[in-house]
């Protein structure tokens, strides 16, 4: 499907597009850039840094892959949004590096919603407790602006829909209990090439689409 058709689809639901350009060459990014796309997502720090250095400076770079503490410093000067915050520890490191760069870095908390076993992601009780803690309140250089999740890779649409719904439930819970004073907590990053239609229907504000835009990755 073409870039323009995907954009039309997303516009109907007020959903934004993060074009996932991991493993793709700079020329592919520039092609979409010329068509107006400014938000690009990568999952490896080194690749992200190399592309950021080489490509136009008005691109908004999104980190969507698991982030190790010792690598935060490389992206802290420029990163637009980190989708993959999966522990209090990494959030504290992001805060530290953001302070060094005199920035406030926007972050999403990643939740484990899929059936598949993965090491990464908060569960809702853990996130609730952390967001209410004095420790979290003391982090002045990060802003938690929403949640991120990945559904199980399956053809079972009901299962995918239920998993996206569970992320929306977590989002609503956190918004109500932890962010009622401000409305900066507003993003739900869910939906990829294979399931973004369902994600839009279930309230996604941001989809992360790679292969549908750039072709399959090898
Ligand atoms: C690779 C990746 C995507 C995009 O996947 P596609 O199926 O190619 O659209 C989205 N989110 C994350 C976290 C990814 O790693």
Question: How is the topology of this model organized?
Answer:
Layout lengths: L2 H9 L4 E5 L5 H9 L4 E4 L2 H10 L5 E4 L8 H4 L5 E5 L2 H13 L4 E7 L12 H8 L2 H4 L4 E8 L7 H22 L8 E3 L6 H6 L4 E4 L1 H4 L4
Parallel strand pairs: 1-2, 1-8, 2-3, 3-4, 4-5, 5-6, 6-7
Helix pairs in contact: 6-8
The structure holds pyridoxal-5'-phosphate.
Determine the mean pLDDT. 95
The best one-word shape is globular
The number of helices is 10
The residue fraction in helices comes out at 40-55%
Report low-confidence residues grouped into runs of 5 or more: none
Give the N-terminus to C-terminus distance in angstroms.
Answer: 19 Å
Topology pattern, helix = H, strand = E: HEHEHEHEHEHHEHEHEH
Key traits:
single chain; 218 residues; 41% helix
